[in-house]
Amino acid sequence: MKAAKWIGAAVIGAAIAYSLFTNAAVTAAAIGAVLVLGFLYVYLIYFGRPNHVASLDEITDTGWHTVDLGEATVSADGSSYAMFVRRGTSNNLVIHFSGGGACWDGETASRPIKPIGVVRGYTRDLTMFYFNSLTRLFPAGLAGMANRRDTTNAFRDWNFVFVPYSTGDLHVGDTTNTYRHNGKTIKIHHNGRNNCKAVLDWVYANFPSADKVMVSGESAGAWASAFYVPQIADHYTDSKLYCLSDGVGIVTERWRDILDTTWKADSARTLGFDIDTDLYEDALLHRSDAAARTIKYLHSNTLYDDTLTRFGAALNHTSTETDGFIEDWAANTKASITRLNQSGLHYNFFLTDWGHKPKKHTTEHTLTTNEFYNKCTADGVLFSAWIKRNVIDDEDLSLGHELLSVKVR
């Protein structure tokens, strides 16, 4: 009987194969069906939203869960916003702010990030600027420090709160703007501040205490990690606080106008620092409050960041026809790291030119929640090992000192 079933299956399979081989239309239809089904599987199932919970008490596993945060939270295009949480097995906590660009005028607001644009790859001038809604890439696509399946990951047993970013305002805006571009209007909800407040209110209610708290972020989220860590430290007064800012830093005279006029961040009152030209450095060194906080700051950059260099050029209206805009950004980054390293803050840095692509004169953008977490090195030390030694082992380690003294080409 079993043999008959196998013979029958073989006959049917052969008939299908013959039909595909001899009939181009059938073959094309079959290939199309496979591609469509594959896309639907990836989009709806693999990158589907985790199940919803209202509180940590509802979570009995170590997988990702979605938390809806109410009507006060919204994405740039007016669609819904939510956060993601994963319960750990330790009493330590990661609060990680996602990246995803920014927009500040009609030109940038008219160019949200689209999947087809990502497929096209690197161009010297940015063609897309920000996420205007929650992307399905997260949390399923998170790797690196967020990868619980990696047994070598020193943070796999930590509680993990992932703060998505879909407001184009470095997580700090509090306004709705109507931008105009080429005769069209674009309505953008810069609602980052309210979204983050809702996230942190939930975190405080569900994680009332922790042994260690790491406030981390990448790209736009790297600025947010520096913006919000003082407030978080004020809540977790009995915890050890760490702030990891990965892929951060742009020098421009426009920061104050963009944050406080365009995005209505009200930075002096809500963020507690004075804005000058280097927003990350300002958040650490130009604080306007007198509170004494014990925070260990960790700062990572690649020397020719393929994304921050282009955002810097866009903000400063700098030509991208030569490598000058890249070299200027690298020089500014090294100068900022040097000042921060000499400031007296509890500060350690990771600076590398690992993976430099000579033809493009670029390096990777961020390292924390992607494949480069366990690949990128500085002074022969893996990025993942640098974070572990600073946070898990409480060692003070900075890497890339020699690059600070090397003149960019």
UniProtKB/TrEMBL annotation:
The chain crosses the membrane at residues 27-46. InterPro entries: AB_hydrolase_fold, PAE/NOTUM. It comes from the Bacteria. GO terms for molecular function: hydrolase activity. The keyword Transmembrane applies. Residues 1-24 form the signal peptide. Keywords: Membrane, Signal, Transmembrane, Transmembrane helix. The keyword Transmembrane applies. This is Pectinacetylesterase.
